[in-house]
Design brief:
352 residues, alpha/beta, six-stranded mixed β-sheet, 20 strands, binds pyridoxal-5'-phosphate
């Protein structure tokens, strides 16, 4: 749904353009002299990939990442000078589209490499340095597997840069051993958490190019980002009904909440079908903690305690508290899930 249809949606995502761009600028500065790209897979982590790409291009971002060719096609043309890479590489059934696209695959397996080599087209390559998710082995990369490829970016992905164990430093050392030993124009390792680690103890996680996702959208992968990364997304929803609940009565499915005194409740137009999942039942809040979620989250509705807000009534809008680290703690969901789960019923409204 685009903003032109916003009049009919009883719920919207307010997306702060300035915060998105400022987050990218902070991540770029933290990347030192390296370029800073943007992961916009999963429809720009739920915000809308086209709009994210447009606003980050305006800020100066030139390297974008999606996961599949379907996502690449849905994105359409990027701004001049921007490049797009497809993380999952290229399957046989992608070849017709991929060889006619301006985007390039991130080749992850020896099969993908042999599929792509004869096209003579540019690519990126993923090397596995310890995550055991996608990528060819370092030894293969050093022993001829890359011959004949025109590689823009050789990359690897960090498995635990958000934690304070030694895994990121181990992966860094393994990846650095590839420096100068391939024909790749650029090397890239760091996601959002890896960018936070850049420079600590002299460690260079940035190489030539970084690939943040989460932190662009307001996620805090590590404490270093606190105070620098701003919230981007705020779900807002309209009140359907304001009602009084007597002491001893309960609210919602399975009577998870029972009033211990007479209270006022607002029924609000957002629910688990919108990605506001049941972990927020009795735990979430709105309007900066003023309005608690009472009882279980329904498919399309929640109940908020509104005793502290006598001014609120039917048709009024409330802002759901969605600071990602706090919302993650409330709900038991990850910051990633909180973004990518945001449903299709929101009007996505970009503000300056
Ligand atoms: C999703 C992804 C990123 C971005 O990671 P964040 O943790 O969201 O910053 C970077 N690189 C790869 C390969 C990814 O899949």
């Amino acid at each position: 749904m685009n903003t032109a249809d916003a009049w009919q949606a009883p719920l919207r995502l307010r997306i702060d353009t300035q915060a998105l761009q400022d987050n990218w600028r902070w991540l770029r500065a933290r990347s030192g002299g390296a370029a800073c790209g943007a992961a916009i897979k999963a429809d720009g982590y739920g915000l809308g990939a086209q709009a994210v790409a447009r606003h980050l291009s305006a800020a100066g971002c030139r390297d974008f990442y999606v996961s599949s060719w379907g996502e690449a096609m849905a994105l359409g043309a990027l701004s001049d000078g921007a490049s797009l890479s497809v993380f999952h590489g290229v399957r046989a059934e992608d070849m017709a589209v991929a060889t006619h696209s301006a985007a390039r695959p991130v080749l992850n397996t020896l099969t993908q490499i042999s599929r792509w080599r004869d096209t003579g087209r540019r690519c990126d390559v993923m090397v596995d340095t310890g995550m055991n998710r996608l990528g060819i082995a370092v030894s293969d990369a050093l022993n001829g597997a890359l011959d004949g490829l025109t590689i823009d970016t050789l990359m690897s992905h960090l498995a635990g840069a958000d934690l304070d164990d030694a895994s990121a430093l181990r992966q860094l050392a393994t990846f650095a051993s590839l420096k100068g030993r391939t024909t790749a124009k650029r090397l890239s390792l760091a996601n959002s958490a890896g960018i936070c680690l850049n420079g600590q103890g002299g460690a260079d996680f940035a190489f030539d190019l970084t690939r943040p996702g989460l932190a662009l959208y307001g996620g805090i992968p590590r404490a270093e980002a606190l105070g620098h990364i701003a919230q981007v997304v705020t779900p807002q929803a309209q009140i359907l009904q304001r009602r009084s609940v007597r002491a001893g009565e309960s609210v919602g499915y399975n009577a998870l909440f029972t009033a211990t005194r007479d209270i006022d409740v607002a029924i609000v137009n957002i629910g688990y079908a919108d990605g506001y999942l049941r972990g927020f039942s009795c735990k979430g809040s709105a309007e900066g903690g003023r309005l608690p979620v009472l009882g279980r989250v329904s498919m399309d509705m929640i109940a908020l305690g509104v005793d502290t807000a006598p001014e609120l009534g039917e048709g009024d809008w409330v802002s759901i508290d969605y600071d990602l680290p706090s919302a993650a703690a409330q709900s038991g969901l990850s910051q990633y899930e909180l973004l990518t789960g945001l449903g299709q019923r929101f009007a996505r409204v970009w503000t300056k």
